[in-house]
Amino acid sequence: MILIEQGKGEGLLFSVNIESNVGSPTVVTTTDRGMNAEEWAELAVKRIVSISADTPMPLREQAVAYRAQIKALLIDYFHKVAQSERATIKVILEKQGYADIAKNIEDI
3-22 pLDDT, tens per residue? Predict the structure, then answer.
């Protein structure tokens, strides 16, 4: 928390109170690969949809269902991003005369 106060004489000129919560850092490791769409979606959805431990049960169930829908949507779009990136890399490699490598990228 940052608190800034500046006064002149008896009156207060201005007062600013700033609070920030960056949350807890998350560390995820993989072996011999990057993270897949499902793993990225799980990290993202936990930050997008936060469910309090003391949320009453009917609301908690709705929040869990909503979180699952958001995660499925993110996974779908993350797969599309990866597919689009591979298509772009393939075109660049083909233009530079690396058709054999481009074919391997297409098969990933």
Answer: 545 555 555 555 566 666 66
